[in-house]
């Protein structure tokens, strides 16, 4: 996706690229959701505010904002350099879970973070 984004960046706006990518994802993934609806979402009460609020947050704030920012970053930097920042996602997600939700930081997280940081350092240093 980052390579395609970089190729069409001179022609299309970041929001257009993100919108088209989202529409393609919806078209491709909807059959799988419909096929497993009863086993996965059959017991969810979609009439509650907490469900709609969660969907709105995950869709509009968390996902859409992140994709727009990512696609803008791809336009400003080369895809190879930007790809290194993608590795920070699990670290940021876990730290936000710890900060906002009180989740525990384990030794596996610390080890994984060190491995991620080491791989980024290695890629920058020896590329």
Can you give a write-up of this model?
This protein has helices at 2-8, 14-35, 37-40, 49-76, 79-86, 89-101, 107-125. It has two domains: 1-78; 87-127, no CATH class. With 127 residues, the protein is mostly helical. The protein has seven helices and no strands. The mean pLDDT is 85. Helix 2 crosses helix 4. It is globular and about 50 Å long.
Mean pLDDT: 85
Largest beta-sheet details: none
Order of helices and strands: HHHHHHH
Name the structural class.
mainly alpha
Radius of gyration: 18 Å
Number of strands: 0
Task: Count the domains.
Answer: 2
Main attributes?
single chain; 127 residues; 2 domains; 7 helices; globular; transmembrane helix; EmrE-like; membrane; transmembrane
Gist of the model:
With about 130 residues, the protein is an all-alpha fold. The protein has helices at about 1-10, 15-35, 35-40, 50-75, 80-85, 90-100, 105-125.
Explain the layout of strands and helices:
Layout: H1 2-8, H2 14-35, H3 37-40, H4 49-76, H5 79-86, H6 89-101, H7 107-125
Helix pairs in contact: 2-4
Domain EamA: 3-122
Main location: membrane
InterPro entries: Diverse_Substrate_Transporter (IPR051258), EamA_dom (IPR000620), EmrE-like (IPR037185)
């Amino acid at each position: 996706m980052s390579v395609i984004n970089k190729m069409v960046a001179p022609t299309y706006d970041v929001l257009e690229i993100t919108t088209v990518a989202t529409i393609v994802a919806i078209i491709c993934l909807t059959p799988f959701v419909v096929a497993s609806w009863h086993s996965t979402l059959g017991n969810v009460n979609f009439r509650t505010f907490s469900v709609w609020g969660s969907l709105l947050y995950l869709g509009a704030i968390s996902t859409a904002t992140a994709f727009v920012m990512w696609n803008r970053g791809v336009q400003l930097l080369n895809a190879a350099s930007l790809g290194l920042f993608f590795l920070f996602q699990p670290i940021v997600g876990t730290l936000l879970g710890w900060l906002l939700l009180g989740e525990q930081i384990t030794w596996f997280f610390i080890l994984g973070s060190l491995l991620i940081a080491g791989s980024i350092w290695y890629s920058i240093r020896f590329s």
